[in-house]
Amino acid sequence: MFKSSLLVISFIGLTGIVGVAQRPDVKFDRPAAVAVTSSRNAPFIVGERLTYEVSWQDFLVAGELVIETKDRRSYDGVDGYHVSAQAQSVGLVSAIGKKIDDVYESFINAETLLPFRAEKRTRHGKRSQQSSVTIDQEHRTARLEDGRGVKLPVETYDLAGLLFAIRGMDLTLGKARTFNLLEDGRLYAIRVEAETRERITTPVGSFDTIRIATRMADRANDKLYNLKLYLTNDQRRIPALITAEPSWGGVRVQLTSAVPAIKPPKK
Fold it and tell me: What b/e string do you get for 104-131 counting C-beta neighbours within 10 Å, with b at 16 or more?
């Protein structure tokens, strides 16, 4: 239970998101619209480090989430950003349950903002795993670490890259976009929609945000535990808050620090 709360809401392990799908949602029988964002409009900057507190039922601190834009340089001849997302269990949850330490890293083409490589390292108690995937967006194929190939739809993202892609999407209210997610060799289509504007309060301050709703594409009743992201309504589009409502209780992921600092607008 604690593993699911930490990873689902952190939007990293996404155990819940990929777990609710019994089959891939991605279809290849119709072309997908291309909506590549220019790097000049990228909402994230090198050196950005966002730290979050993950709490369950509004009182139990279950974990910590850290999202970073680590570097921008040439990777195998590609000018790219190196971004990461790390979820760790802390406190009582870590003491009485399995220790969780999951790291997802993505290497994103600086021009198209599409990932070309992804790496994952997970540790749940004494069990640890690691894997990697190379993504060829031009030829719409992915090569897994075990040598298997996967056919891809247009614009496919890994887990860490997906969160950064959502920050760069069109946030016009009522406008939705479907993202293709590749995780553990399987493809999922996730529909993301800017619902409304909402002012929220976090330990960092109060912010005007755009509330983002998510669900599995083509499944009207599949609300992904009512997973919602609140992006600051400014140029940086920082996820200031993430909430979800799984059957076993509400989970809240709130921003506790940001480097560079984010300053709430003055009233």
Answer: bbbbbbbebbbbbbbbbebbbeeeeeee
Whole-prediction pTM: 0.82
Contact 154, 117 (CB under 8 A): no
Any idea where the domains of the chain sit in the sequence?
A: 2-256
Two tokens at 173?
């209210």
| Beta carbons within 8 Å of 85's beta carbon, 6+ residues apart | 10, 11, 12, 65, 66, 67, 68, 103, 104, 159, 160, 163
Which distant-in-sequence residues (6+ apart) come within 8 Å of 184 by Cβ?
A: 18, 131
228 in Cβ contact with 210 (< 8 Å):
no
Instruction: Give the tens place of pLDDT for each residue, 105-157.
Output: 999 999 999 999 999 998 888 888 899 999 999 999 999 988 899 999 998 99
CA nearest to 222, candidates 14, 7, 16: 16
Contact 115, 190 (CB under 8 A): no
What residues have CB less than 8 Å from 207, skipping those under 6 apart?
Answer: 199, 200, 201, 230, 232, 233, 240, 262, 264, 265
